């Protein structure tokens, strides 16, 4: 006669994300003595755990959560499923078995060439820094989008193309000192702006902006704007650009067509 082993199983689901927190649901089922013919009855216990820690991305652009422990090194959860941008341009993760879906609330920044940063709402420590490649270095502002290629989970030292395509939608506006801003809509009335410095070059009926970050480093992105689009976008900035064009022409002693 076969002996019946007592049951003790544990099921775990990731159910929510907060700024520096991972929320886990666990269901533990054990066999306890009861009035059934087998002498035991299954009993399930539901627990909701809130783990404190820091969100980050690893070298392979996978999402990771480092749990802060009182003693010893932090415990790391690595999320092996896929992630994409939802309709609000936020990161949405789906587990490999499709049971768990997590939405990360935050906003994007372009901090360096070939690098994207996703900053969490309400956190000073959690952020995802991804290695990416521009789909094209030249943009035309009428489309109002920036495209990047990203490899996720590729166990290689360098990003392999083709990979997943990330498309950011927004509106180009002039910022301070004739720099450019990219205003993104994150839904529910939430607007965030990515600010860029720029080196301006004048051509025939167009102006080319080579974008720079706050450290005055090149981002490898150029925005080409036509004469008509500039005037429509911001008439005041258009006049200021024409003035700057004349100043450059006088300094160089040449005529710059615009």
Write up what this structure looks like:
By secondary structure, the protein is mainly beta. It has a domain at 9-29 and 43-131. It is 10% helix and 53% strand. It is built from 2 helices and 19 strands. The protein has helices at 227-233, 235-252, and strands at 8-18, 21-33, 40-57, 63-67, 75-79, 82-85, 91-94, 101-104, 106-112, 115-120, 127-131, 133-134, 138-139, 145-150, 164-174, 180-185, 191-203, 206-212, 218-226. The strands form 4 sheets. Strands 12-14-15-16-17-18-19-13 form an 8-stranded mixed sheet. It has a 5-stranded antiparallel sheet with strand order 1-2-3-4-5, with no helix packed on it. A 3-stranded antiparallel sheet has the order 6-7-8, with no helix packed on it. The longest helix is centred in the C-terminal third of the chain and has 18 residues, at 235-252. It starts with 7 loop residues before the first strand and ends in a 6-residue tail after the last helix. The mean pLDDT is 83.
């Amino acid at each position: 006669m076969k002996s019946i082993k007592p049951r003790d199983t544990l099921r775990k689901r990731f159910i929510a994300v907060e700024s520096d927190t991972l929320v886990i649901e666990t269901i533990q089922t054990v066999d306890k003595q009861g009035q059934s013919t087998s002498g035991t009855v299954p009993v399930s216990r539901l627990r909701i755990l809130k783990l404190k820690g820091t969100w980050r991305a690893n070298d392979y652009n996978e999402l990771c959560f480092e749990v802060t422990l009182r003693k010893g090194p932090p415990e790391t959860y690595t999320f092996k499923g896929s992630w994409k941008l939802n309709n609000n341009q936020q990161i949405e993760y789906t587990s490999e078995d499709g049971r768990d879906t997590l939405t990360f609330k935050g906003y994007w920044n372009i901090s360096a060439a070939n690098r994207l940063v996703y900053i969490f709402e309400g956190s000073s420590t959690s952020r995802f820094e991804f290695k990416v490649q521009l789909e094209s270095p030249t943009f035309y502002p009428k489309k109002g989008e920036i495209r990047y290629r990203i490899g996720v989970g590729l166990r290689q030292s360098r990003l392999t193309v083709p990979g997943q395509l990330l498309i950011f939608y927004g509106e180009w506006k002039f910022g301070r000192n004739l720099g450019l801003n990219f205003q993104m809509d994150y839904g529910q009335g939430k607007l965030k702006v990515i600010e860029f410095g720029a080196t301006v070059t004048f051509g025939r009926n167009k102006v080319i902006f080579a974008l720079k970050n706050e450290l005055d480093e090149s981002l490898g992105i150029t925005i080409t704007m036509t004469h008509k689009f500039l005037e429509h976008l911001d008439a005041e900035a258009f006049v200021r650009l024409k003035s700057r064009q004349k100043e450059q022409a006088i300094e160089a002693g040449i005529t710059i067509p615009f």
